[in-house]
Specification:
- It contains 3 helices and 6 strands.
- It is of the alpha+beta class and 145 residues long.
- Strands 1-2-3-5-4-6 form a 6-stranded mixed beta sheet, with helices on one face.
- The longest helix has 20 residues.
- It is globular.
- It starts with 10 loop residues before the first strand and ends with a strand.
């Protein structure tokens, strides 16, 4: 019998199609990973909502035919860092000041994250957010690129 040794990792990355189905899978797989990492209830719920919103935005606003989006999460000592990369660098996210039928998503991200921002890539952009593993902290927005 062959024994296997698994090495726990604090990083999770996957590519998914830039579709509603891909966004839904991103949320479901992120929830599974957060559970595997033992991230506590409120932090896991906040991270799930952030992944769901950023993945939805990547599928809706960052979609380029034939290109995927990438989800990356990293578990730190006191936080989870979430990154969503898509192929539409010219469509930078901005929270709506007065949302009407939409535009609440980034306000939700800003409320749940201790910090969030966006940076350019060679092709596209990455939107990132940091979710604390314990109590709420002030929200800071930063852009790089």
């Amino acid at each position: 019998m062959k024994s296997e040794t698994t090495t726990p990792t604090s990083e999770f990355t996957l590519r998914l199609s830039a579709t509603r189905r891909g966004a839904r899978l991103a949320r479901l797989l992120a929830v599974h990973q957060l559970h595997d990492w033992g991230v506590p209830g409120p932090a896991a719920e906040a991270a799930e909502l952030v992944v769901a919103e950023l993945a939805s935005n990547a599928a809706l606003h960052g979609r380029v035919t034939g290109r995927d989006f990438e989800v990356r999460m990293e578990l730190g000592d006191d936080h989870v860092r979430i990154e969503l990369s898509d192929a539409r660098g010219e469509r930078r996210p901005l929270p709506a000041r007065e949302p009407d039928e939409g535009g609440y998503g980034l306000l939700l991200v800003a409320a749940l994250a201790t910090a969030w921002g966006v940076w350019d890539r060679c092709v596209g952009k990455t939107v990132w957010a940091t979710v604390a593993l314990s109590g709420p902290r002030p929200v800071r927005t930063r852009s790089r690129g």
